[in-house]
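Lecture notes, part 5. Sequence design as translation. It can be helpful to think of inverse folding as translation between two languages: the language of shapes and the language of residues. The source text, in structure tokens, appears below.
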């Protein structure tokens, strides 16, 4: 855990690519399919994506042997199958897909999802690329951001709470009203960071991270950010690290109601268990302090980290590595964790709710329980 990648190319796993030499379209948007397993008809999936008009399709095959690649590659020459030498995390698969593609945009999906509403790849790309080109004539349909997150439904056609917001809560209190959450504008010794999922109700609302990793990513921004950290093994903590780093470095992740997906299978549960992954998240995202135009990790953070880590030698080695990583990237920070949660409570996503509404009930009727925040993301700031 003592090494933090400094460049995007340093973190790519070994793989073999099969097929995908033919471009299907020229929209600027390709698709990346992550494989969750299960018996989903691959031919039907590729046919649907072909109709959508993506330039290329990257299919992440994992490390297991697949015997249908040859006929699939012949039938769908625009699909590139990525055979990994060993099992890796979903974040590493997304990193690899971004390096393999040349399209300016790529849409990450899972094999147990279907597209309900999008307007096709060309329409999706037009909305995003027009913003990058500076064409802002229709502000409702253009975006210029790191990742655009779609709406997602469950198998009962109910919209699930995929908008993730960080919040500052007092220790032991997991249910705050909007007014109470908004009033907590700075860390104090008893504050902890939580994440609260709820249903997006407006176009362009910010989200801390893309739910389940799904969304349309700007490839250049993604690579410049460094992608997902491969040394973090739980996908939830990869997403937390990716999302916080995005905010700390001035990137935007937001939702759109113009694209809607639906799960065919069970909605995946996020493993929020604390451990080494959460410690790494703390060092990279919560420990840095922003001053003027740069960030650094002050030595006074070490006692807190040591108490959580438990091993003096390992704690100091990891803490020092994190300090060096922050020093290398110090001018990329535009804020620190003290201002991240406040950024969310000041937005319309909170302000449009009635004052007497509890955040936990803001998602309405949903298949997911939003009454509890994610306990794994809690860290005290005792400075």
């Amino acid at each position: 855990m003592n090494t933090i990648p400094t460049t995007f190319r340093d973190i790519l796993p070994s793989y073999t690519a099969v097929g995908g030499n033919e471009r299907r379209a020229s929209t600027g948007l390709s698709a990346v399919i992550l494989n969750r397993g299960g018996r989903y008809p691959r031919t039907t999936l590729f046919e649907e994506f072909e109709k959508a008009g993506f330039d290329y399709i990257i299919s992440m095959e994992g490390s297991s042997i697949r015997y249908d690649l040859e006929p699939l590659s012949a039938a769908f020459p625009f699909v590139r199958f990525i055979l990994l030498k060993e099992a890796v995390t979903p974040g590493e698969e997304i990193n690899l897909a971004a390096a393999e593609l040349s399209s300016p945009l790529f849409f990450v999906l899972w094999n147990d999802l279907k597209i309900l509403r999008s307007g096709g790849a060309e329409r999706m790309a037009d909305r995003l690329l027009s913003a990058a080109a500076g064409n802002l004539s229709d502000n409702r349909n253009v975006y210029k951001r790191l990742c655009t997150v779609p709406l997602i439904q469950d198998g009962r056609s109910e919209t699930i709470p995929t908008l993730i917001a960080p919040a500052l809560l007092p220790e032991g209190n997991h249910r705050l009203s909007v007014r109470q959450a908004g009033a907590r504008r700075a860390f104090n010794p008893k504050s902890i960071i939580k994440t609260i999922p709820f249903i997006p109700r407006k176009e362009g609302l910010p989200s801390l991270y893309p739910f389940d990793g799904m969304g349309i990513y700007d490839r250049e921004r993604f690579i410049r950010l460094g992608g997902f950290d491969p040394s973090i093994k739980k996908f939830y903590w990869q997403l937390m690290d990716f999302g916080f780093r995005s905010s700390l470095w001035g990137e935007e992740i937001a939702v759109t109601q113009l694209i809607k997906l639906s799960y065919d299978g069970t909605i995946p549960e996020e493993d929020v268990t604390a451990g080494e992954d959460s410690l790494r998240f703390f060092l990279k995202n919560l420990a840095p302090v922003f001053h003027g135009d740069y960030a650094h990790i002050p030595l006074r953070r070490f006692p807190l980290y040591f108490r959580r880590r438990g091993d003096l030698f390992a704690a100091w080695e990891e803490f020092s590595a994190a300090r060096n990583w922050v020093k290398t990237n110090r001018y990329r920070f535009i804020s620190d964790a003290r201002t991240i949660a406040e950024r969310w409570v000041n937005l319309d996503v909170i302000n449009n709710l009635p004052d007497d509404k509890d955040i936990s009930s803001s998602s309405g009727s949903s298949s997911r329980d939003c009454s509890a925040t994610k306990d794994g993301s809690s860290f005290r700031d005792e400075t």
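The translated text above is only one of many valid answers, since several sequences can fold into similar shapes. The mean pLDDT is 81.
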